[in-house]
């Protein structure tokens, strides 16, 4: 009884907040579209919408902080037990603690080395590993393209690999391959542009469908498994 | 004694080698680098959110001089939502209340997603695609045609044939095949661009390793020429 009451309340709350926020956002972007219909409530809708957006963004930030704390606690607990991967967990926990600790010490002017440790760590650790991992991706991508031809040597697979080769070939500064550049440019301007627009429009339409399901109370993400 | 910059360069050099050691197979060094990266990234994210979002919010609301009850309530709401979401993972007792917090986030999130899909993607892309049509320019007609074909490929409505199987109408099927071709070319071009990007990053990292090896590692003394 109590559970279904909370479920109903949750659906109602989601519906109300979604409608108020959406109305506020639409009033902001398309004032002429809704101004006539919502004129008497316009100031209240704008104010509530702005407040809800503020609360939403801060709540997301709080959730991320809670998530990071949870990650660190899980790894601290794991590093305390003698189990597989406990060393890695300790490394993760220490790395995060060092970054947070150095930032705190820097802010409190307790570090007198004159070195911006936070920037140094960002440039020499974060950026280094990020770009190295992205560089390593090269091998995975090339292997993936080879697998497409090895496992799916059909028309679509061939078209895919041919496009990849065309894009790669046109990037080479060889006079023998100069003919490929205009073809690549046309490919990017017409079919690739059309495909990217089609995919983006498809995603937008799907988002609208899912959003409409929430707005009409049909979405079940608010109900736990026991309600079903 | 080595300077801080030198330590940073050593760290960067070693981390790059540790990541690239994955080319020999999954190993301890690679995993260590990845866990260091995850820890540093978690630390930085926590600092950025704490400094950039939460502290200003708390100072403007909860710790504001002469804060009104409305301000205090507004300031505490996101923190309460965060706690309720956290409680959801610990116990099922406060399930109903945490569901209300989730409902608020889902409601506002839906509105933001709908606004982004309508005003950020759908309307600008449709207008841009439609307005680009110029008589006498085949490319300007091919572009919207490609977009339509891509969208048709993603619709799966069929007519039931007398044998009981679902079948697309012939003209829809033709458009869907063309759409599939456009999508394959698009994905191929994106794949090729990703290979080029990772190749650039890989060569940059490789160049860095060679350069740093020459600077950091002691070079052997030149061997005197016989009889010199």
Describe this structure in words.
The complex is a heterodimer of chains A (228) and B (228). Chain A is an all-alpha fold. Chain A has a domain at 1-83. In chain A, 79% of the residues lie in helices and 0% in strands. Chain A contains eight helices and no strands. Chain A has helices spanning 2-29, 31-35, 42-80, 86-107, 117-151, 155-171, 180-189, 191-215. Chain A is extended. The two termini of chain A are 14 Å apart. Chain B has 228 residues and is mostly helical. Chain B has a domain at 137-214. Chain B has helices at residues 4-20, 28-60, 69-90, 95-131, 138-153, 170-216, and strands at residues 159-160, 166-167. In chain B, strands 1-2 form a two-stranded antiparallel ribbon. In chain B, α1 packs across α2 (28-60), α1 packs across α6 and α5 (138-153) packs across α6. At the A-B interface, α1, α3, α4, α5 and α6 of A face α1, α2, α3, α4 and α5 of B.
Strand-helix topology:
The complex is a heterodimer of chains A (228) and B (228).
Chain A: H1 2-29, H2 31-35, H3 42-80, H4 86-107, H5 117-151, H6 155-171, H7 180-189, H8 191-215
Chain B: H1 4-20, H2 28-60, H3 69-90, H4 95-131, H5 138-153, E1 159-160, E2 166-167, H6 170-216
Antiparallel strand pairs in B: 1-2
Q: Counting H and I runs of at least 4 residues, what is the number of helices of chain A?
A: 8
Q: Care to count the β-strands of chain A?
A: 0
What Rg of chain A is obtained from the alpha carbons, in whole angstroms?
27 Å
Helix content of chain A: over 70%
List keywords for this structure.
heterodimer; A: about 230 residues; mainly alpha; extended; B: about 230 residues; two-stranded antiparallel sheet; 2 strands; about 75% helix; flat
């Amino acid at each position: 009884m109590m559970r279904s009451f909370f479920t109903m309340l949750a659906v109602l709350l989601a519906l109300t907040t979604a409608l108020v926020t959406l109305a506020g956002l639409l009033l902001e972007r398309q004032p002429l579209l809704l101004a006539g219909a919502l004129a008497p409530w316009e100031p209240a809708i704008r104010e509530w919408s702005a407040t809800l957006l503020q609360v939403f963004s801060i709540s997301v930030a709080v959730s991320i902080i809670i998530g990071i704390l949870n990650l660190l606690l899980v790894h601290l607990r794991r590093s305390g037990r003698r189990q597989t991967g406990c060393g890695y967990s300790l490394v993760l926990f220490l790395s995060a603690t060092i970054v947070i600790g150095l930032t705190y010490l820097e802010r409190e002017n307790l570090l007198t080395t004159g070195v911006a440790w936070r920037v140094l760590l960002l440039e020499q650790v974060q950026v280094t590993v990020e770009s190295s991992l992205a560089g390593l991706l090269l091998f995975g991508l090339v292997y993936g393209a080879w697998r497409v031809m090895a496992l799916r040597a059909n028309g679509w697979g061939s078209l895919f690999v041919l496009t990849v080769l065309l894009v790669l070939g046109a990037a080479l500064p060889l006079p023998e391959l100069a003919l490929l550049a205009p073809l690549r440019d046309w490919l990017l301007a017409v079919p690739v542009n059309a495909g990217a627009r089609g995919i983006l429009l498809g995603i937008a339409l799907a988002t609208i469908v899912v959003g409409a399901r929430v707005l009409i109370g049909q979405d079940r993400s608010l109900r736990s498994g026991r309600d079903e | 004694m080595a300077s801080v910059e030198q330590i940073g360069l050593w760290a960067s050099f070693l981390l790059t080698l540790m990541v690239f050691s994955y080319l020999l197979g999954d190993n301890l060094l690679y995993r260590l680098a990845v866990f260091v990266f995850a820890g540093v990234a978690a630390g930085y994210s926590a600092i950025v959110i704490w400094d950039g979002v939460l502290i200003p919010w708390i100072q403007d609301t909860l710790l504001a001089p002469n804060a009104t009850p409305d301000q205090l309530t507004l300031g505490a709401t996101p923190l309460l939502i965060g706690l309720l979401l956290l409680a959801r993972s610990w116990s099922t007792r406060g399930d109903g209340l945490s569901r209300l917090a989730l409902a608020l986030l889902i409601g506002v999130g839906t509105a933001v997603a709908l606004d982004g899909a309508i005003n950020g993607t759908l309307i600008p892309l449709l207008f841009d695609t439609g307005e680009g049509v110029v008589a006498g320019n085949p490319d300007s007609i091919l572009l919207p045609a490609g977009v339509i074909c891509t969208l048709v490929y993603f619709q799966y409505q069929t007519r039931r044939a007398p044998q009981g199987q679902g079948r697309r109408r012939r003209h829809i099927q033709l458009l869907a095949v063309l759409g599939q071709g456009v999508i394959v070319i698009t994905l191929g071009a994106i794949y090729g661009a990703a290979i080029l990007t990772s190749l650039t990053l890989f060569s940059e990292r490789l160049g860095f390793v060679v350069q740093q090896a020459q600077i950091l590692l002691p070079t052997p003394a030149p061997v005197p020429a016989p009889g010199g």
